[in-house]
Design goal:
The protein is of the alpha/beta class and about 200 residues long. The chain is about 35% helix and about 25% strand.
């Protein structure tokens, strides 16, 4: 859907654009505690499930193919990310219960379940060691969700400039399984949304 959004928006807007994604994510580092905000200043990597691994009927052939692909990170707009960090830090300092604003790398997955390392014995996912691969491929992994890589990649491929960045509220830390209180998320959503709009309004095209 992010690809759809970027392309459809590009189709009806003339000239350069700025796009910022602000949403929710899981924290992948100890610093990305619930209630913190991660700005994807280091860009985003991408994990995709490999269907060939699961469709082979011969067990030896199946396990000879990696179950997941790990793609090279795509960068975010540096100046836009920097302005976003500054604006969000000021905004979150006024929100009771909000944590710090971090700069890090987002990891985008093509599924909420298998390629995000969620275990489900009702499905054959081969993802028990997924996070070992995540940290090996992306040493600066800080957050995980399903949109940022596509936003940054599609913006990068636009023939008419699109400056893109992303930030996300950490609702749960995937290492500790601690979850933020929903009342805090509501406040962060409003304060952060206004902060993003202010950033977009003041950063030059």
């Amino acid at each position: 859907m992010m690809d759809f959004f970027v392309r459809e928006s590009r189709a009806i807007v003339d000239g350069p654009m700025i796009m910022v994604r602000y949403g929710t994510c899981g924290g992948l580092s100890d610093a990305a505690v619930p209630g913190s905000v991660v700005v994807s200043s280091l860009g985003a990597g991408y994990i995709a499930r490999n269907p060939d691994h699961f469709l082979q009927t011969d067990a030896e052939a199946r396990y000879g193919k990696d179950p997941y692909f790990y793609f090279a990170p795509v960068p975010a707009d540096a100046a836009l990310s920097s302005a976003l960090e500054e604006s969000l830090r000021e905004a979150m300092s006024k929100v009771e219960g909000a944590g710090t604003v971090l700069a890090g790398m987002n990891i985008t997955a093509d599924s909420f379940y298998s390629s995000q390392g969620r275990l489900d014995d009702r499905f054959h996912d081969d993802n028990e060691d997924l996070f070992q691969h995540v940290y090996r491929h992306y040493p600066h992994a800080t957050s995980m969700e399903m949109e940022t890589f596509t936003l940054l990649h599609t913006a990068h491929c636009s023939r008419i400039p699109i400056r893109a960045a992303a930030a996300a509220m950490v609702v749960a830390n995937r290492r500790s399984n601690v979850v933020v209180h929903e009342d805090v998320v509501d406040k962060m959503e409003i304060a952060g949304g206004r902060s993003v709009l202010d950033t977009v309004a003041h950063v030059p095209l």
